[in-house]
Design a protein that fits this description.
Elements (H helix, E strand, L loop, with lengths): L24 E4 L11 E5 L3 H13 L4 H14 L20 E7 L4 E7 L5 H11 L4 E3 H10 L10 H13 L14 E6 L5 E7 L20 E4 L3 E7 L1 H6 L2 H10 L4 H15 L7 E6 L5 E5 L5 E6 L2 E6 L1 E2 L2
Parallel strand pairs: 1-13, 4-5, 11-14
Antiparallel strand pairs: 2-6, 2-12, 3-4, 3-7, 6-7, 8-9, 9-10, 10-11, 12-13
Helix pairs in contact: 1-2, 2-3, 7-8
The structure holds N-hydroxy-L-asparagine.
Length: 323
């Protein structure tokens, strides 16, 4: 589906919007934010608070959820201090930063790019794919050409810090990607706007020191992200191969459609993944929200955090977990 034929709105520019460091509390996981909370925005990890600040301001100003999630995650993509997304992301094992991103609306319109090089904001390219093409996904050189043709500028994504880390990694490894609980931190965001429309976005530099050409779950609609206006949305972070194998986010949404709460659905998918692969060495986290704004989160291992923002709450929470 192509949103051009749906409710296409003008792209909202928020260049003047700063990212304030809101006072955030760490609290334990919450199953729910009450019945019918909107607007609301939730994002993976502590850096999700940056995305939430920008997205929530847009939502309260009346923006569409798809614009809020996109603009929110773009701030994280552009921040070189976030080493797992966009500029400054860890490179692959050949020293190249390659990015994966997608976004999706409750009506099924979606766009995605994968294995994209040299572009600061892959999620904005994914938005163009959604709005301007009859396709869902562009990858690699084709995605880059599409971006350049549409006015995106080429940018070196490998920062000095990432280059230094890569050179150190080369010295102490066998040129094999690490499989461990630290190898993650994708930003995935879900939002409901004032009209009750739900949307999500997901963007990452993927698993650090991955094989050149590897694509994770994050840009795959149904794996790293899935949103449905009737059932809700879900997104993932962590070792993407397991999320792809289980069609993770689509599965969570289907479980919600069949009556599970967001929290129960996140727990069920993580337990299913664990049954297949006793993955104590990996981390996987899911975040889900139903169309009333009830949300849940659960991870395989301790340590998964997520940020929540709505009129009554601005917090970073610790997800409950299996191990
Ligand atoms: C992936 N799910 O590429 C992503 C990893 C991640 O920050 O969360 N990266 O498998």
């Amino acid at each position: 589906m192509n949103s051009k034929y749906y409710n296409r709105r003008n792209f909202i520019k928020v260049g003047a919007l700063g990212v304030s460091s809101a006072t955030l509390s760490i609290s334990s996981a919450s199953d729910s934010s009450g019945s019918s909370t909107k607007p609301i925005i939730i994002s993976t990890w502590d850096h999700g608070a940056m995305a939430n600040n920008v997205g929530f301001k847009l939502l309260t100003d009346g923006a569409d959820a798809i614009d809020a999630v996109q603009q929110g995650v773009m701030v994280v993509e552009s921040d070189p201090k976030v080493r797992t997304v966009g500029v400054g992301g860890y490179p692959d094992r050949d020293g190249v930063v390659t990015l994966d991103a997608c976004l999706m609306k409750g009506d099924g319109s979606c766009g995605s790019v994968a294995f994209l090089r040299d572009i600061e904001n892959p999620v904005a390219v994914a938005r163009k794919v959604m709005d301007e093409t009859p396709h869902v996904m562009l990858v690699g050189a084709g995605a880059k050409k599409f971006a350049l043709d549409n006015g995106f500028e080429e940018k070196e994504l490998l920062t000095e810090a990432s280059k230094r880390d890569y050179e150190n990694w080369l010295k102490r490894t066998d040129y094999m990607p690490p499989i461990n609980i630290e190898n993650h931190d994708t930003i995935s965001t879900l939002a409901i706007d004032q009209n009750g429309v739900i949307a999500g976005a997901c963007t990452t530099s993927g698993a650090s020191y991955k094989y050149h050409g590897r694509v994770g779950d994050s840009p795959i609609i149904g794996a790293g992200l899935f949103v449905d206006q009737e059932a809700g949305g879900a997104c993932a972070t962590g070792w993407g191969e397991e999320v792809i194998r289980t069609a993770g986010s689509a599965m969570v949404v289907e479980m919600m459609r069949n009556g599970k709460s967001p929290q129960e659905a996140c727990e069920a998918i993580v337990k299913r993944i664990n049954e297949r692969r006793k993955g104590k060495e990996i981390q996987i986290g899911f975040l889900a929200m139903d169309t009333k704004g009830n949300f849940g989160a659960y991870s395989l291992r301790k340590g998964f955090t997520y940020a929540v923002k709505h009129k009554d709450e601005d917090a970073i929470k610790a997800a409950t977990y299996l191990y």
